[in-house]
Structures are given as C-alpha cells and as structure tokens.
C-alpha cells in the first residue's frame, strides 16, 4: 500500500484527480480536509484508525474506523479487522453536513456495540458430531458481500461471519411452507 502523498503518514486509499488534471494518492483524512474545504464546512478533529469494542461474549473486536465526508453528508464507517481477512462486521452511519460530528461518532459507537451484541444464528452440535446452524429467532439481519468464487451470487455476512447463499438456504430448511419477507437497506440505515 502506498503512503498518502499529502500527509506522508497514513495509507493512501483514494485516487484524487485535481481540476488541473494532476493526480495524487491520498488518505481518507486528507481527502476529508479537501472535501470539507470545497464544501465550506468545518470538520471536528477525528483520528481515523483502529478502535476496539467489546462483544456480548466478552470478546474484543477491532475495527478500522474512518470519517467519510461526502457531498450528501458526513458519516463514519467501521470495518472489522478479522484474523483471516474474511469479511466481518461493518457498521456505517450518515447524517447531514451540518450535523454534530462528535455526536454522530457517539451514535456510530452505540450502533457498533448494539450490532456486536445481537446474534441471529445459533449452532447446535448433534450427538454424532455434526454441526447445524439455524436462526435463533425466525429472523436474520446481514449484509451482502462480494463472492470471489462466483460474482453472480453474493455471499452474506451474518453475526460477523461470511456464509454462502447456499449455506443461508440450509439454515432456512426448517421453514418449508412458511412465508418470508426480504427487504434491502443501505449500509448506513438503521434496521432496528
Ligand atoms: Zn494523508
């Protein structure tokens, strides 16, 4: 990964093309400063980086947290750092450009803690040793993720773990004859 050409400190994650045609590889924080200046808004100090939060099981979860400044609003995005780099939890929040940014970060942290405390799946082990994962309470919330082995069918992330669409189907095999409702939400929306 390249180092940001502006601060020479953070990892560059954004390719910025200026009006004069010159291009730079810069970090999220430097990009936010440029965007805020262009839009005439003030940014409260925030350090993008790694933040840790406890789950309901006492386990600590590490997230990369970044502030996002967009023409339609200000947000924060928290992406879990998993040991094997597989997709884990992702929590994001967005509000108007004139929102209270510190309070928005507080709301992100509350959303992360709530997300970590909710579990939709439970795994039982049969006497013969075979494990079976099913819904805990007839409800599931998750996120679609890119599937490297088949880009036509998404993977899903539930309880911070990645599953194939087929695995989700197996989890639902107890519900033959039941109705279901599938509704799609933006990553920044609150599903609760
Ligand atoms: Zn930078």
Mean pLDDT: 93
**Strand tally:** 11
- Radius of gyration, taken over Cα atoms and rounded to an integer in Å: 20 Å
Distance between the termini: 37 Å
Spans of at least 5 consecutive residues with low confidence: none
Strand order of the largest sheet: 3-4-5-6
**What is the strand content?**
25-35%
Secondary-structure-derived class: alpha+beta
Q: Order of SSEs, N→C?
A: EEHEEEEHEEEEEH
Bound molecules: zinc ion
Helix content: 10-25%
Q: How many H/I helical runs?
A: 3
How would you describe the oligomerization state of the chains in this entry? single chain
Largest sheet: 4 strands, antiparallel
Indicate the overall shape: elongated
What do you see in this structure?
The protein is α+β, with helices and mostly antiparallel strands. Among the domains are: 41-117, no CATH class; 121-175, no CATH class. It contains 3 helices and 11 strands; from the N terminus they run ββαββββαβββββα. It has helices at 28-39, 101-117, 165-171; strands at 14-17, 23-26, 49-54, 60-70, 73-80, 90-95, 121-125, 131-135, 143-145, 155-158, 161-163. The longest helix has 17 residues, at 101-117. It is elongated, with a radius of gyration of 20 Å. The structure holds zinc ion. Zinc ion (ZN) is lined by residues 4, 6-7, 10, 26-27, 29-30.
